[in-house]
Amino acid sequence: MKKAVIISFLLCSTLCWGQIDYHTKKKKLVEQYQQAEELVRIGNLFKSAEILNEVLNKDPGFDEAIVLLHEVLLKRDEPQRAVALIAAKREELEAPYLNRLLLFQANYAYQLGEYTQAQQYITQLGHEVYGVGAEQVEFLKTSIQFSLEQVADPMPLTFEELPHPINAFEQQYFPSITRQGQLVFTTRDNNGRGDENIFFSQLTERGWAKPANISDQINTDRNEGTASISADGRTLVFTSCNRPDNIGSCDLYVSYKQGQQWSAPELLNERVNSPEWDSQPSLTVDGATLYFVSLRPGGMGKQDIWMSRKEDGEWQQAVNLGEDVNTPEDDCSPFIYLDGQTLIFSTKGRVGLGGYDLFKTLRLADAKWSVPENLGYPINDAFDQVGYCVSADLWAYFSASDASGSLRLKRFKIPENVLPQVETPRVFGRVIDARDERPLQAKVELLNNSGLIELETEGGVFELQKANQVKAKKTGYRTKLVEWSEFITDSTIRMEPFAVGQALLNEPILFDFDSFELKPSVSSQLMSVLELLKAHPELDIEVQGHTDSIGGQAYNQQLSEKRALAVAAWLQAHGIGHNRVFISSFGKKRPISPEVDPQSQQNNRRVEIIIRTVRK
């Protein structure tokens, strides 16, 4: 069950108001009351209740003590005792003090999502509420009415927990997802006391892959979490706390995908980070604009949302989004949608259903934002909604507690009217030379369940569509077939160039002693060479025969030639032209191993196939 809280911006104990004239004439009781106030302030709710009950036994009309005891009972999650206190004291309390109790009770029910009960209490209020301004009372009234209207007309949503092997940790939260379905999230074990780390999982045709450590370059024995990965999967901004180079307690770091690896994290400069707490990043599609949360001064109040742009390779001075977005209360958990215009964020400072609610706002001209709009029920409810992201196919990913207290990753499909219909930015893949990462002009085949899509790269780049496999072909390079789950980690195919003298087989073709007959066990090796030569007509090969050291050189020379001819004849019989196959025989001159033990001699009875020519 959610624990109800007293909203700090709405209600606080009588200690906040600097009371001087108490509703008792007994100095000793005032002293005891002030002692109870201090105990409440430091969180000792049981001793304070004992003292307040003693005070009220001696002076049942001490209104301030009644108000404070009621607050203590609610903070202890004892609403029935709080209700009983209201009933017992209703007749003797002055109206502003009774209104204060009713307001507290309404807020308690509101925080638990018991909106009808909250409405019953709030409608009993008179005009004056002890220690609370009319504007704050109206805020709670409006929030309760809004909540009732939302619950009466809910959006048709289905929430689903992500299946195994996701949710393998005690806690997983603050997800971020790329256009190609790579989900990045923060994990923590040991009942929430363990080290925070960043993990990822890839959504494939067969489901979610087993979550893996995103990089040993990024995760350390410190806390790393609340990460945002750009939609193209190449930039990662994350939060890390208490590192030796920290500017504040928690700062933002950036890492870039280089091939299959993430670069060493870089601490963002003081134009982004501050001596205060900085966290909860969200990157635009291209990774060039960063939204984040900070407790630094210069904002609207508590946690505020800030923004920095990357220009000429440098992150610029962070700016506060201003009162269009931020409030005097906590505003956090920004997520910038794929259109680069729609910002989804969480706040306690606007009319909602309780706790943190999700809102959306649209970026306008002149750094202005549209009036934030509550995303409604059941996207929002009485619980806190923080740490959301939205995929290209409009699934919202988030975390929520289960009955055991574990944080589990879940998702729901975003209704059409919640986010604007935008054209998903085009996604590109690359084909490069594996040696020097030079872009290659190549043919690309995308293989999926509905057939084959054939493309050609331009400057090494091709427009990508989702597939089961991706194949790249180019004259002078070994054809590369890549599974989708491997390919989308960085959307790059690395092609190995052919080179003269390069062996076509990882292992040579072996023969029995004093034999040049092809063994059945070598058929798979021969087929792989055959397929390669048919796929690459630009290659000519040299078939090299060898023997062991047993016998004379002349006999072994003839035997090695017969072995080479046997392989060449097989290839020619299966369609490889005579002009592409050359024969060499070395007898016992080039042993793999000079040793004379049986295994070494067996390894020397072989044929190797190497590239003789690569025609352009």
Shape: elongated
Structural class: alpha+beta
Number of separate strands: 34
- The residue ranges in which pLDDT falls below 50 over 5 or more consecutive positions are 3-15
> Mind telling me which CATH architecture of the largest domain this is?
6 Propeller
CATH class of the largest domain: Mainly Beta
Q: What is the domain tally? A: 4
The largest sheet, given as strand count, sense and whether it forms a barrel, is: 5 strands, antiparallel
Distance between the termini: 71 Å
CATH topology assignment of the largest domain: Neuraminidase
Give Rg in angstroms.
Answer: 35 Å
Helix content: 10-25%
Percentage of residues in DSSP E strands: 25-35%
If helices are DSSP runs of H or I spanning 4 or more residues, what is the number of helices?
A: 11
pLDDT averaged over residues: 90
The CATH superfamily label of the largest domain reads TolB, C-terminal domain
Protein name: OmpA-like domain-containing protein
Main location: membrane
Domain OmpA-like: 498-615
Keywords: Cell outer membrane, Membrane
List keywords for this structure.
Neuraminidase; Immunoglobulin-like; elongated; disordered N terminus; 23% helix; Serine Threonine Protein Phosphatase 5, Tetratricopeptide repeat; alpha+beta
